[in-house]
Every structure is written in C-alpha cells, then in structure tokens.
Amino acid sequence: MKPLSLLLSVVALGLASTVSAGPAVIECWFVEDAGRGQLSKKPAALLLRQGPGSPPPRPDLEPELYLKVHAVLTVITHTPAPRIRLGQDALLDLSFAYVPPTSKAAISLAPGPPPFGLEWRRQHLGKGHLLLAATPGLSGQVPAAREGAVAFAAWDDDEPWGPWTGNGSFWLPAVQPFQEGTYLATVHLPYLQGQVAMELAVQKSPKVSLTPAPLVWAAPGEAPPELLCLVSHFYPSEGLEVEWELRGGPQGRFQKAEGQSWHSALSHHADGSVSLSAHLQLPPVTTEQHGARYACRVHHPSLPALGRRSEITLQVAGLSGPSLEDGVGLFLSAFLLLGLIKALGWAAAHLAASRDSTQKKTE
C-alpha cells in the first residue's frame, strides 16, 4: 500500500530557539489510501533539524514509514500570543526562510533572492481587514497601509543561490481595543505560500484605591462608614473579581470580610478602558476589632496571580492610645507654644522699656 499523501499542517508558532539549537518535533498525521475510496490516518512527527544523521528512535511510530522532507519555505513567529498594554505600540515578529528545492532550480533562476509578497490581515468578530500589503522588488501599486501599520519587508541577505532568510515583522502604533483579534501574516513566493496566525490581546491593569483612608473610625456597637473600593482604568472588562478581606479582629487571622457588598455599573473612558466601584457596608463593630485591617483585593487577567490590593485600618473610638504621631504632634505644639510665650514676653519687655524711656524724657 503506497502512501497517497502526507499531510503536514505545520504551525511553527512560538519556537523559542532556532533549528540549529536542537531538533524541534511537531506532531502531525500520515494519511494513506486504505482502498475503496477510504483513507487511513496514522500518527506521525515532523522533526526540524540541521545537518546529517539518523532520526531519534520513536517507539510509537513505524520506522519503515520514515520519510526525509526538505523544507522549502518556512514562516515562523516568536510572538504567537502577544499581550499589549493599551495605548502602547505592538511589534509582531515574523521571519521566513527560503531554500531552493534543488541546485538546478536555483541556477535556472536569476541570482539573488526571489521577489516576494507580504500581507498582514486581522480577523475579529467575524470580520476581516487587510492592514498592509508589500511587494519588495516588484512594480505595481499596493493598497495603502491602514491604522499607521508598518512592516519590515526585506530579505536579510543577498546570496546568489540561497538559502535566504527574510524579515516581515509588523509594527502597529498605540494599540486600541478594536485592534484585538487574529493577525494573519502571509508570505507569497512564486508558486509557494506560507502563513502564521497570532492572537493579539489588549490589556491594561487597574488602579485600586480604598476610601476612607488610611483610617476608619467607629464607636462600639455602631457600623463604620461604608467602604468604597475604586477600580479604575482597566481593560478588558471581563475577568475582573473584587474580594473583601479582614486581617486581625477577634480571630486574629486572615478571613473573608463580612457585610453587604455590591458593585456599580461600568464607566467607559475615551481610551477604551473602564472603571467601576465596589462597596462594602460593614456590620456594627466590637472593641475586639480595634486595629483590624480591611482590604480590597482585585484580580484581573492583566495582574499577577495575587492581584492588587488596598487596605485601611479600623479604629474603635475610646480605645486608641497615644501613638508616635500623637507624641510628635504634642511636642511640636508645646515647642510652638513655648516660643509664642517667649515672643510675647520679649515684646512686653520691649514695650515697657520704651514707655520708661519716654517718661524720663518728658520729665
């Protein structure tokens, strides 16, 4: 049974090292004719490497089906899933290589790298847009680039017979939310075409502030003022979580804060980011809660796993002893009062002396 075809659907995305640094294996399928119009499919692997040598053993594959395949056109990106901060520039990496299939084929062509075409498209929410097209070395008009996009479309070398490597990286200034989506980079050579896809996501981490801050006061048996946690200027709106935490108090450990909590509606800003406020109405406090710390912790895809937090300290009226700040304030007040008394005494003495000299002159 002879192989009918070999399907190598190779997506060379995110290769962190070049082929020369070691082999890279891409799993694929070997398809052959099973007779009666049927196809059979077997697991296979595509080994990318440089230089001679036999392939490494793979017990799960059939050795008699080993084939040697030469890559003619390779298109690779090192940024398969870029995460770009809202308003910053995006640089999508793209490199490609062309190796003439035979030396005769290379000699039959003009010396130097062949002309090529480059296209960058975006697909999002069922819509597609051509952002940039370039045809270095070819005459003819191409559509103007959209959204300020720039591509570095050029061969890196000009060897007469190859192989050749090229750069087609894509630069997009001041990325906005509407520019999210799948970016398709296609390299066109005579009778050849290679394409890779990149998923660009726009993010902006939120700012978190908690009021009243840094202290909140309450009398025993009374509820403190409502806590307001402002989560501002973040993107996307999905994936945001707000948690209320209590550290200290009667149990003396970390725990979920009790009380009634709710969120406001989203507020939209001109740059595409959003804001909201989270509210917590605390129950009446006890004297054991003096010094407890309430925190608002925010989780968002743009933040680390622990999120971002802001906290305040609860002071129960009548239980606060003098603090260092109070001592410093009293010292400064006493110092100023002493200086004022001395100044008044000096002014009174000077005024009395002036009156005595005036009386002596009159006599």
Describe the structure.
The protein is mainly β. It folds into 3 domains: 1-69, no CATH class; 73-203, Immunoglobulin-like; 207-316, Immunoglobulins (Immunoglobulin-like), CATH 2.60.40. Helices cover 12% and strands 40% of the residues. The protein is built from 2 helices and 24 strands. It has helices at residues 103-108, 324-362; strands at residues 24-35, 38-48, 73-76, 83-85, 90-92, 95-98, 117-124, 127-134, 150-151, 154-155, 164-167, 170-172, 181-189, 192-203, 207-211, 215-218, 227-234, 241-248, 253-256, 260-263, 267-268, 274-281, 293-299, 308-316. Strands 4-14-13-7-8 form a 5-stranded mixed sheet, with no helix packed on it. Strand 10 and strand 11 (164-167) form a beta hairpin. It starts with 23 loop residues before the first strand and ends with a helix. Residues 1-22 have low confidence and may be disordered. Keywords: Disulfide bond, Endoplasmic reticulum, Glycoprotein, Immunoglobulin domain, Membrane, Signal, Transmembrane, Transmembrane helix. Pfam families: C1-set.
